[in-house]
């Protein structure tokens, strides 16, 4: 990609803070624990006055990672393949008016964007266009538009089925509005569910959890203002409400995410801290019986009063954007025994952790590289990383991977340094292969059972390299 002198000047002016390790509890001006700051892009660099949601896309062609951030006046696209020197590629302007609420999800190399702005509908943007940006930052145009609703608070996508679920619209009483996006450029209305209150956010999965009664069904877990709503949406013409989950001291059931085993649903109440005076509180539901969800326990921070907002599970960690307290990461490996422990944090709003609506709106922790995106209402886009992971692939390592891309078999070799362990992780950070050797210099690895996409290979628990499977 050719970048002009003017673009380079813009890029260097974009970052108010560059790579800054977390040392003695601080990364520059930002309080931290266990997370290094790689870079930040300010709102002004993206010609916006407020930030909101964020998501990510990994290009299956070359494994490059891109952050997508919602702004008051559009959606920004950022190449973070070099997280220390990210490139702001440009913005897709809002379809109608500006709004502080915007939400993005990704399916099949397309971004789907909604907003509370009047008449906004759903924008569709072809992310593969980001491969050929030659004059950043560009002003993009949408590739398709869905007008089956106007205002919309949030969008949920089940990538396994190719259905989007718009929630918080004026249709279906604010309940999920179904859209078939299997052909992303031709979204088709597919019904909805109005049987259980306004839905603020949701997660939809093909169910493979402990309740055998619903195995293989498409199940929606909604955060519906004062309750958890569980709905079978397999038959779009006949969605069926399964159950509700309730908890004490409820004010506004905001958002939740399932643990990997589908045994627990971790939710946040957006207003309980300010209304009841809790420290940051998270409610953990036991949803092993979908007909009878019950509160398993409540986790409350020892010393932080901030409002919790969006939280996501990756393996044994829960990543929580916590407004003025920034990103908080909890170890949930012992959740069965009602234990959660905060292990890391990065505070994007230094100076106060009070219960107010500033700071970290959302977090995207699913990049295979380990890079974590935080979208901040006031300070823009942050890229952080676990201090123990280092920054980039070890390009000077003696280890080699060939062929790459690969299909059925890949050879990992070394000229000098023997390896004892090889681990392979998918884009969700899940370990899909774990092999141990007696100090080998060359091994053939069977990858035929892995789906196509980008993976990270970790050698001897230290060196990481990317592997593309086609």
UniProtKB/TrEMBL annotation:
Q: Name one Pfam family in it.
A: Por_Secre_tail
* Leader sequence segment: 1-18
Q: Is Signal found in the keyword set?
A: yes
Task: Identify the domain of life.
Answer: Bacteria
Domain Secretion system C-terminal sorting, chain residue ranges per copy: 402-467
- Cellular component GO terms held in the UniProt record: extracellular region
Q: Which UniProt keywords apply?
A: Signal
The UniProt record lists the keyword DNA damage = no
Read off the InterPro entries from this record.
Answer: Choice_anch_B, Secre_tail
Q: NCBIfam families annotated for this entry?
A: choice_anch_B, Por_Secre_tail
List the protein's name: Choice-of-anchor B family protein
What is the scientific name of the source organism?
Aequorivita antarctica
């Amino acid at each position: 990609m050719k970048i002009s002198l003017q673009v380079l000047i813009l890029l260097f002016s974009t970052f108010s803070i560059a790579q800054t390790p977390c040392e003695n509890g601080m990364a520059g001006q930002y309080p931290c624990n266990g997370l290094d700051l790689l870079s930040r892009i300010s709102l002004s660099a993206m010609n916006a006055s407020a930030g909101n949601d964020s998501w990510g896309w990994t290009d299956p062609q070359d494994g490059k990672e891109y952050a997508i951030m919602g702004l008051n006046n559009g959606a920004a696209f950022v190449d973070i393949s070099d997280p220390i020197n990210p490139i702001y590629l440009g913005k897709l302007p809002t379809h109608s008016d500006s709004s502080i609420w915007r939400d993005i999800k990704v399916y099949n190399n397309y971004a789907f964007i909604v907003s509370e702005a009047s008449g906004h509908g759903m924008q569709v943007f072809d992310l593969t266009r980001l491969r050929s940006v030659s004059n950043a930052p560009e002003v993009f145009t949408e590739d398709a538009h869905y007008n089956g609703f106007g205002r919309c608070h949030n969008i949920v996508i089940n990538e396994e089925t190719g259905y989007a679920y718009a929630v918080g619209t004026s249709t279906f009483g604010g309940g999920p509005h179904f859209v078939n996006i299997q052909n992303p450029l031709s979204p088709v209305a597919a019904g909805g569910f109005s049987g259980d209150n306004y839905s603020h956010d949701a997660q939809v999965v093909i169910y493979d959890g402990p309740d055998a009664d619903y195995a293989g069904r498409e199940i929606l877990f909604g955060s519906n203002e004062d309750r958890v709503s569980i709905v079978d949406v397999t038959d779009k013409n006949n969605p069926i409400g399964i159950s509700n989950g309730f908890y004490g001291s409820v004010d506004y059931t905001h958002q939740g995410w399932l643990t990997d085993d589908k045994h627990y649903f971790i939710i946040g109440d957006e207003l309980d801290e300010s209304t009841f005076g809790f420290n940051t509180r998270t409610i953990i539901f036991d949803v092993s019986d979908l007909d009878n969800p019950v509160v398993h326990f409540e986790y409350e921070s020892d010393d932080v009063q901030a409002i919790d907002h969006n939280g996501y599970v990756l393996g044994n960690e829960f990543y929580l954007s916590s407004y003025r307290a920034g990103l908080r990461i909890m170890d949930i490996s012992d959740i069965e025994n009602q234990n959660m422990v905060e292990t890391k944090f990065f505070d994007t709003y230094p100076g106060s952790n009070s219960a107010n609506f500033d700071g970290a709106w959302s977090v995207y922790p699913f990049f295979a590289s380990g890079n974590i995106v935080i979208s901040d209402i006031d300070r823009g886009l942050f890229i952080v990383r676990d201090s123990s992971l280092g920054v980039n692939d070890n390009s000077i390592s003696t280890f080699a991977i060939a062929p790459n891309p690969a299909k059925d078999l890949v050879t990992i070799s070394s000229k000098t340094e023997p390896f004892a362990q090889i681990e392979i992780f998918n884009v969700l950070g899940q370990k899909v292969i774990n092999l141990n050797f007696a100090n080998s210099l060359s091994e053939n690895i069977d990858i035929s059972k892995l789906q196509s996409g980008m993976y990270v290979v970790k050698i001897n628990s230290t060196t990481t390299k990317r592997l593309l499977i086609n």
